[in-house]
Amino acid sequence: MADRKARNRSSRAGSSRAVRAAAAAACASLVLAACGSTKDAASPGGGGGGEGRVGVILPLLTSPFWQSYNDYVPKMAKSEDVDAMKTVNSNSDPSQQITDINNQLNQGVKGIVVAPLDSAAIAAGLDQAERKGVPVVAVDVAPEKGKVAMVVRANNVAYGEKACDYLGGRVRTGKVVQIMGDLASVNGRERSKAFRDCVKKKHPKLKVLEIPAEWKSDTAAAKLDTLLNSDPDIKGIYLQAGGVYLAPTLQTLKSKGMLKKAGQKGHITVISNDGIPQEFDAIRKGQIDATVSQPADAYAKYGMHYIKAAMNGEKFKPGPTDHGSTIVELPSGILEDQLPAPLVTEKNVDDAELWGNTVQ
After folding, report:
1. Which residues 6+ apart lie within 8 Å of 201 measured at CB?
2. pLDDT tens readout for residues 217-243
3. What gap in Å lies between CA 257 and CA 172, rounded to an integer?
4. pLDDT for 37-55, tens place per residue?
5. Sheet strands (E) in the chain
6. Phi (first) and psi of residue 335, to 5 degrees
């Protein structure tokens, strides 16, 4: 669950070219990498019996969600009997993430678990891993192309739809705003489109205003402040990532005298995504109303589970799993294990089974 680079339509193309150029430069610099079009048969990976080190690459560490995921990784690696190396932080930079993958490959890892920053740009790193015969499991974000053994992810379309239905059931009519993620990420695109389409179809009396915030807290705060100046009658807010948007949203509302508790006149209904402890506290205080719990613990657990299985040469197929989820085949042909992501409100916020209540 994740936080990224600013792009408009014209700058996005330039950024993509920069990422591809960085990937090409990294490829050229790899003495041991097979940068041609065929797989390096002499490289380690693939069928290594599940033995060997696994590289784990994070997208960022500025969000409480990813901080929690980072803390879960060594615990889940141990429970799944995986030799995971110390995690690497790509620091919200898609080009750096490709370099990080290549660095891990040069260190001889037999598997990689990565949370992609950019759904398209990550293909350069995935191609390098495939050439080296090293299986990859993607967590949180599904690549647009490239080979991965499995994507471990919750249903992001459902995130947007749950937010739409929650707000639609309480606001009924008027203006609502969605603070969106980075649209270079499939997560940002799916949540945004699902929310927008659901409102249009099921709650047509709502007017959707949008803030593209690229998973950046300062961007969210500045744009929300401006929007509230022009549209002070906003009745609902959907935060696509509580880890980065919760604090600036609450601070902005408070600074304008608009942070009213649930049940009070003038309360703005807020639903978020992530399921971090800070969101649960805000629900208990009546500052926000709900969140969708993105399973940081299960992301770490099943990332380790699938990479070990892939290193053992196991293959997967669509269908129900033994852990309450369903593996689906995406249009790209990639398989995705869609983990459960429950809605959390004041009614179940104290549920001990929620990972956000287990974090110290």
Report:
1. none
2. 999 999 999 999 999 999 999 999 999
3. 23
4. 223 332 333 333 457 999 9
5. 53-58, 83-84, 88-89, 111-114, 136-139, 150-154, 174-180, 206-212, 234-239, 269-274, 290-293, 319-320, 326-329, 335-339, 343-344
6. -90, 140
Banded model confidence at residue 346, pLDDT cuts 50, 70, 90: very high
**Residue labelled with tokens 């959907």:** 238
The predicted structure's pLDDT at residue 360: 64
Task: Give the DSSP letter string of 308-324.
Answer: HHHHBT----SEE-TTS
351 is written with which tokens?
A: 């549920």
Which residue in 211, 212, 201, 209 sits closest to 168, CA to CA? 201
Is the Cβ–Cβ distance between 160 and 208 less than 8 Å? no
Which pTM does this prediction carry? 0.81
165-202 pLDDT, tens digit per residue, is 999 999 999 999 999 999 988 999 999 999 999 999 99
Q: What mean pLDDT, rounded, does the chain reach?
A: 88
Ordered alpha helix ranges (H), 264-320: 277-284, 296-311
For residue 301, the model assigns a pLDDT of 98
| Residue pair 96/90 in contact by the 8 Å Cβ criterion | yes
CA distances from 345 to 64, 153, 290 (A): 19, 22, 5
The residue assigned the tokens 């649960």 is 280
Cα gap 156→111, rounded to integer Å: 26
CA-based max dimension of the chain: 68
Q: Output the CA angle 347-241-300, nearest 5 degrees.
A: 85
User: CB of 249 within 8 A of CB of 227?
Assistant: no
Rounded alpha-carbon distances, angstroms, from residue 306 to 302, 313, 323, 331: 6, 10, 13, 21
Helix (H, G, I), strand (E, B) or coil at 56: strand
